[in-house]
Amino acid sequence: MIRVGIAGADTAMAGELIRILINHPDVLLESAFAPGKVGRKVASVHHGLAGECDLDFSPDINPNELDVIFIDAHSDVADRFRMNTDRWPELRIIDMSHCPSLDFEALDMAYGLPEINRKKLVRGCKRAVVPRSVAAAAIIGLYPLARHLLLKGDIVVGYACPPDIDTEEKISMARQEILHVLRSTQNSFNGEIKLTHLDEEVSERGLKVVVDVPCSLDINEVFRIFDDCYDDHNFTFMVSNSMPGYEVEGTQKTLVTLQKLSPDRLTVTVVADCRMRGGAGDAVHIMNLLFGLHERTGLYLKAHKY
Q1: In the 8-state DSSP scheme, what is residue 58?
Q2: How are beta strands 92-95 and 127-129 bridged, if at all?
Q3: 213 burial class (0-12, 13-18, 19+ CB within 10 angstroms)?
Q4: How many other CB atoms are found less than 10 A from the CB of residue 47?
Q5: pLDDT (tens digit, 9 = 90+) per residue, 241-294?
Q6: 3-state class of 170 per DSSP?
Q7: Strand 265-273 vs strand 206-214: parallel, antiparallel, or unpaired?
Q8: Beta strand 155-160 with 206-214: parallel, antiparallel or unpaired?
Q9: pTM value > 0.90
Q10: CA-based angle 189:192:194, to the nearest 5?
Q11: Fewest C-beta in 10 Å: which of 91, 183, 240, 246?
Q12: DSSP state, residue 286
């Protein structure tokens, strides 16, 4: 069994994580740390866990008793694990905090989007950072084109997501993530990324990204490029028509639709659950890969907070 601890276990994202982990067949949730919550029941903070989780918030986390730590906080406890990895060389660390100051490459942390980094995650990786949800969706929509050196010029990415994700700082950081991945994939791409609001509402779990890019390829050839990229992945699927958000809510699924509205333009639409993709679902997906489990383990269904 994988012994798990969580630093910053009182956040909404940690609640999503716990709802997945309590039903994960290969996990023992050993400790949940949150400043100011010591001794309280985890279920008293996170709805939907009454009768499912009897764990108390712990006064600290002992990494010597754990196999993996999820970080969703900026506390001294969390920083101790980020900055002192040499003390626990076998401890896996999955950082889902989206901390703006976190230089994950300097800390030798893999960028944990399995659709583009699965090989790195399964080949002895010990530390990974969870991508931001808007960045994850946009990269999934653009990565196959970058792999085939098809990106050119500036790219406008339209997005719709809940207000807590749609802040100036978070969107700015998402833009940097997208640029970093695309330029690392296609060295010749020197365009900019502009993130703009879509004029539509989404639920508190909703995430939609629409990208319009120059592309003269036939739609069947574009579909082949995307299908070749994602056909062996377990959560990203090509669909013929743009799907509503409720098709993915509460799941790890990401649905991608391709349209050619004119011969020289391609529109890529991506929908996902923003609490799972770029959040708790990706964190567990990463854990599965780090420990050699099937990607879907524990992610078929999850406990819900309602």
Answers
A1: B
A2: parallel
A3: buried
A4: 13
A5: 877 778 899 999 999 999 998 999 999 999 999 999 999 999 999 999 999 999
A6: helix
A7: antiparallel
A8: antiparallel
A9: yes
A10: 140
A11: 240
A12: H
